[in-house]
Each structure stands twice: as structure tokens, then as C-alpha cells.
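Q: Please design a sequence for this.
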């Protein structure tokens, strides 16, 4: 048994465990050790083993004596409690283990846990900037200032979340009232006869956390969460709020390298690009990828949905809820024939093990999360991973994967679809021409079939006969002119009739 196998066996390490070997023949490798300590603690943890030389992936013991290993253990604790060396010791005695090899030589192993988000950054010396490391591939790399600032923002989340911050100089003029009233209608349907359905807009915004008063300072105003959910595009991207905000949905449904995407929803100036609008526009397009029937209620939440539809809804909500909006980068949702990939800036606030175990609810944007939960969207008990996994397992698909990316920090969720998805959702060959339902100044194209859009419109109208053209356009991801085109076709086919006028409380009726 070679030395690496002995170490894994004696420490009972998993095959996937991150392990770093360091030679200590010439003394305690202080600089190298603490760089790796910081990097592992700020990433996913791992084990540092002193007393092993590594060359060309071959490991050779240094030949350390028991006395020398005991000396190194003492030096570690002396350094660990010295703030000029590291800000937090992090380890306890049981995290350090002496190993006697089969050849009678000694090693010293340190189990470095992933530091909890409220303890990060783990940095060297008294200054975090320029002295904080993260693990990337097999190396230790200095963190950027932005990465360190985000760690501090996450660490302060327990006291005051970033999305609860009161914005200076904002007023009701910065709120898109169409979005707010769409949300309120959805809330009213979900909470019939609730007292909040009767209050005015300002009081409602205060009730859900979009507007608040700081008791300590008596300052009051709109919160970051309120502006992200309901704000106007220019108000959101003001430096006072979230300057880098740019939610992006992209479809890749043609096997042609000359076409970057076949449909795209992004802040192009034709709509107020806030989170609620983005969610309601993107969700129906994502759910078109599923080869199973579905129906919409008045709230644009599925009635009698399959677990796959629920899983996709939760995955999209999770990406929005857990994104870091104060750093560079943006939410990117990519739909392919064989998979859906959701990516958002930030790091995991819990370990991968805790994420998959469930029950560990730590949210980067708890106010935004609450706004979704009010509509019955998003899991607040740390069970979102279970819901997403169940939806895919029920359809016999691969369990969705979650991966942390670095430089910049991102969380990527990949939901692979079944083998026959392309056949069941692909646009027929005779309907793949570019549509003209996008604004004239937009160059994006779409391959969504007219039949898909028509059926979506019929489903929405069936559940909400008083729905407006603007609301239909929002949900379907097309313009109001596009809605008018489909309405005209439906009326010509005898599938849709109008009862009453638009000014006197008229409504639509679907003819089966």
C-alpha cells in the first residue's frame, strides 16, 4: 500500500476529498501551510498533510520523528492564536491527527473544514485584502477585493441582509406600477380575504419588505429587495442600488453555429427589467421544454402541475433568491434541447453536503425569498433541493447537479432533460422561420411555434377571462402586437370570442 493510500485509509477520507501534501523536512512550512489553510477554509475544506514530498504525483515520506511532529503541532497552535498570522483558528484538537506509516515514519494531518459563511473570510495577517485565499483546481489563489467584500456581505447577512438595505433618494416614481399590480393580483388570488389585500400600495410594500423604516436611525425608504422585484430598469441599475443587474435568458434551439441563440429575454429597453417581470416571462418558456401537459391559474402558477413543472419553478426561484446582486455578473438562464442551465453570481452559503441533505435554510436575499413565498413559490425550509430532485427523478431523468464556479464566483445548476425531449419539443421544420413578433429595433429571433404561443394564450384566458393584452405579452414573452396577432387567429378559428367591450368589464371566452 503506497503512502497516499495509507493516508486515505487511516484518515478515512473520501475519494473526492481535497488533500494537500507538504514537505516539512526543513521545518514547519509556515507560509505555504497558512495559504492553503485560508484557501481550503474559504472554499470547500480539505486536509493538509505535513511530512510528505510530492513529485510527479509520487509521494514520499519526509521521515519525520514523533518528536518533530509534536513540535509542529505546538507551533500550529501558537500561530493559530496569533491574529497577525490568521484571523480565526477554526480548528479544534480533534481536527489534528498524527499518522504513523507502515514504515514507522510520522505525518501530521490537519482537517480543515469549510468555514461557515458568517466566519468568512479566513485571512492571514490583520488585513484581509491581499491576504485572503481560495482554492481553484489544485492551487491556492489570492481573492479579489470584490470576492472579499462579498464574503463580508454574506457574513453580515444574519444581522442585516443586503436586500434589506434602505436605498437613498428613491421614491414611488422608481416603482413600475404595472409590475406591482401584477404581483398584487397574484397575491390576492393566493390569499383571498387576507387583510393585506385591502391596504394601499405603500402599506402593502411595507408589509412585504419592499419599503421599511429603520428603528435605530428613523430613516425609511425602499429596500434593495423592493427595487429589484418591482423597480424600473434605470432605477435598479443606479449605482445606489445594483449597478451590474442584467438578468439574461437565452434559448439555443437550432444546431447552427452561426446563430448564438434563437430567443432571448434581457434588459433591451422594451420592458421594465425587474425580477418579477423576468420570472413571469421566463418561467413559461422554460416549462415549454417539458413534454408533459400543464395548465395555468390566474396567478400564473400551475394547477395540477407535474413534479417536473414544480421543480423547474423552484429552480428558477432559487437562482433568483440566492444570487449576489452587489457583485459583477448576472443571472443567466440557458435553455438547450437536452438541458436547462441556471447560473447566478455568488457562492454557496452552505456546504454541498448540507445542500443535498436539506433542512439547512440559509438565504442570501431573505426579503426577496419572502416575496416569492407569499405567492407559494420557493422553499423556506431548506427543502428546495429535494423538490427539484424529485421532479427530475419522477420523470426518470438524471438528478440535477449543482456546481460552484470560481473567478468569478458563480453557482450553476444543470437540469438534464430526457433523451426524447428534442423530438417532443422541437419546432417542426416548416415553422422555423424567424418571427416578426419582436420589437422592430430588436435583432433577436425565436423558434417558438405559433401553436405553442396560441395554446399558452388559451390556457391563460381559460383561467383568467379578464386578462389584458399587456399581461399576456408579459407571460408569453412576446409584444402586444404579437398577442393581437394570435388573438385574431384564434377568433378566426372560432376558438375565442369577446363578451362585452374592453371599457365596460368585458371578458374573453374560450370555445372548445
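A: Design:
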Amino acid at each position: 500500500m503506497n503512502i497516499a493510500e495509507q493516508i486515505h485509509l487511516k484518515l478515512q477520507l473520501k475519494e473526492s476529498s481535497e488533500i494537500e501534501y507538504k514537505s516539512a523536512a526543513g521545518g514547519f512550512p509556515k507560509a505555504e501551510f497558512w495559504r492553503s489553510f485560508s484557501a481550503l477554509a474559504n472554499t470547500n475544506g480539505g486536509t493538509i498533510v505535513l511530512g510528505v514530498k510530492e513529485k510527479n504525483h509520487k509521494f514520499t515520506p519526509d521521515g519525520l520523528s514523533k518528536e518533530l511532529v509534536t513540535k509542529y503541532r505546538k507551533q500550529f497552535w501558537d500561530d493559530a492564536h496569533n491574529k497577525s498570522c490568521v484571523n480565526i483558528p477554526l480548528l479544534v484538537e480533534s481536527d489534528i491527527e498524527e499518522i504513523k506509516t507502515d514504515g514507522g515514519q510520522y505525518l501530521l494531518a490537519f482537517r480543515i473544514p469549510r468555514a461557515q459563511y458568517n466566519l468568512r473570510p479566513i485571512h492571514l495577517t490583520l488585513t484581509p485584502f491581499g491576504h485572503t485565499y481560495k482554492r481553484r483546481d489544485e492551487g491556492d489563489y489570492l481573492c479579489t477585493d470584490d470576492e472579499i467584500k462579498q464574503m463580508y456581505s454574506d457574513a453580515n447577512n444574519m444581522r442585516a441582509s443586503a436586500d434589506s438595505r434602505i436605498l437613498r433618494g428613491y421614491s414611488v416614481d422608481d416603482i413600475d406600477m404595472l409590475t406591482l399590480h401584477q404581483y398584487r393580483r397574484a397575491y390576492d388570488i393566493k390569499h383571498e380575504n387576507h387583510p393585506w389585500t385591502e391596504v394601499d400600495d405603500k402599506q402593502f410594500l411595507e408589509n412585504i419588505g419592499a419599503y421599511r423604516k429603520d428603528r435605530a436611525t428613523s430613516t425609511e425608504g425602499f429596500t434593495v429587495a423592493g427595487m429589484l422585484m418591482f423597480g424600473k430598469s434605470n432605477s435598479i441599475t443606479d449605482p445606489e442600488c445594483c449597478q451590474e443587474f442584467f438578468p439574461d435568458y437565452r434559448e439555443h434551439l437550432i444546431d447552427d453555429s452561426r446563430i448564438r441563440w434563437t430567443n432571448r429575454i434581457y434588459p433591451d429597453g422594451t420592458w421594465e427589467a425587474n425580477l418579477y417581470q423576468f420570472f413571469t416571462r421566463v418561467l413559461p418558456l422554460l416549462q415549454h421544454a417539458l413534454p408533459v401537459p400543464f395548465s395555468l391559474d390566474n396567478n400564473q402558477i400551475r394547477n395540477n402541475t407535474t413534479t417536473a413543472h414544480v421543480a423547474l419553478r423552484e429552480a428558477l426561484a432559487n437562482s433568483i433568491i440566492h444570487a449576489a446582486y452587489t457583485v459583477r455578473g448576472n443571472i443567466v438562464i440557458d435553455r438547450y434541447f437536452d438541458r436547462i442551465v441556471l447560473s447566478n453570481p455568488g457562492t454557496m452559503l452552505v456546504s454541498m453536503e448540507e445542500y443535498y441533505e436539506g433542512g439547512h435554510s440559509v438565504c442570501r436575499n431573505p426579503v426577496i425569498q419572502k416575496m416569492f413565498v407569499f405567492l407559494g413559490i420557493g422553499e423556506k425550509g431548506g427543502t428546495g433541493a429535494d423538490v427539484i430532485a424529485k421532479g427530475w427523478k419522477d420523470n426518470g431523468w438524471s438528478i440535477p447537479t449543482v456546481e460552484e464556479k470560481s473567478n468569478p464566483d458563480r453557482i450553476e445548476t444543470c437540469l438534464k432533460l430526457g433523451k426524447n425531449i428534442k423530438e417532443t419539443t422541437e419546432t417542426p421544420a416548416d415553422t422555423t422561420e424567424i418571427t416578426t413578433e419582436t420589437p422592430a429595433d430588436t435583432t433577436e429571433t425565436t423558434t417558438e411555434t405559433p401553436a405553442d404561443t396560441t395554446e399558452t394564450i388559451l390556457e391563460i384566458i381559460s383561467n383568467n377571462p379578464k386578462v389584458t393584452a399587456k399581461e399576456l405579452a408579459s407571460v408569453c414573452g412576446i409584444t402586444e402586437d404579437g398577442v393581437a396577432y394570435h388573438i385574431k387567429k384564434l377568433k378566426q378559428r372560432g376558438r375565442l370570442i369577446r363578451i362585452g367591450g374592453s371599457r365596460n368589464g368585458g371578458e374573453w371566452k374560450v370555445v372548445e
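Q: Thanks. Anything notable?
A: The radius of gyration is 27 Å. The chain has four domains: 3-143, 162-236, 248-432, 449-512.
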